[in-house]
């Protein structure tokens, strides 16, 4: 039996088979490596696509909120019914403090200090603004620019009471 493996012909065949087996292992290894690289690339692409989808959904949510925010507005009559007063440095407005209205001396929209006899509008959420600052805002939106509280509902409820 040892003579069979010792012959040059058998050794050559064994070498060929061994070479083919090594080539086959290399080919399978390369194919598997390429397959796993493609799978990893597909996973990365899918993750990027999922992230883009989440971002678009978030932007859609923000856009829907902005649209709904801008669709509601107060009528000029509703704006006129909001409480107003002439600002005075000497008058601390104790009646407004008693009901919880903001008594800041600065308009939250233009960020300017109120001057003597400026017309100030108080919203139901207790925030106050210059009349000329808040009126255009309320003509486009029924929400307080500070806290987003609905002004229309409270103003309408006060009218019905």
Explain the overall architecture.
- Residues 94-101 and 154-161 have low confidence and may be disordered.
- With 161 residues, this protein is mainly alpha-helical.
- Strands 1-2-3 form a 3-stranded antiparallel beta sheet.
- Strand 2 (119-122) and strand 3 form a beta hairpin.
- The protein has 6 helices and 3 strands.
- The longest helix is centred in the first third of the chain and has 64 residues, at 8-71.
- The chain folds into 2 domains: 2-71; 76-160, Zinc/RING finger domain, C3HC4 (zinc finger) (Herpes Virus-1).
- Residues 107-148 form the RING-type domain.
- InterPro entries: RING_finger_E3_ligase (IPR051834), Znf_RING (IPR001841), Znf_RING/FYVE/PHD (IPR013083).
- It comes from Coemansia spiralis.
- One of its GO terms (cellular component) is nucleus.
């Amino acid at each position: 039996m040892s003579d069979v493996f010792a012959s040059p012909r058998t050794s050559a065949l064994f070498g060929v088979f061994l070479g083919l087996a090594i080539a086959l292992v290399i080919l399978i290894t390369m194919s598997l490596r390429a397959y796993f690289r493609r799978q990893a690339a597909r996973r990365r692409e899918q993750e990027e696509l999922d992230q883009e989808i989440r971002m678009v959904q978030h932007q859609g949510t923000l856009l829907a909120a902005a649209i709904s925010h801008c669709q509601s507005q107060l009528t000029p009559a509703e704006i006129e019914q909001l409480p107003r007063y002439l600002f005075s440095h000497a008058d601390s407005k104790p009646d407004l403090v008693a009901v919880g209205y903001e008594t800041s001396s600065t308009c939250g929209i233009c960020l300017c200090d109120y001057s003597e006899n400026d017309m100030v509008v108080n919203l139901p959420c207790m925030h106050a603004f210059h009349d000329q600052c808040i009126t255009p805002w309320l003509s486009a939106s029924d929400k307080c620019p500070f806290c987003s509280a609905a002004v229309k509902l409270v103003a309408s409820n006060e009218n019905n009471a």
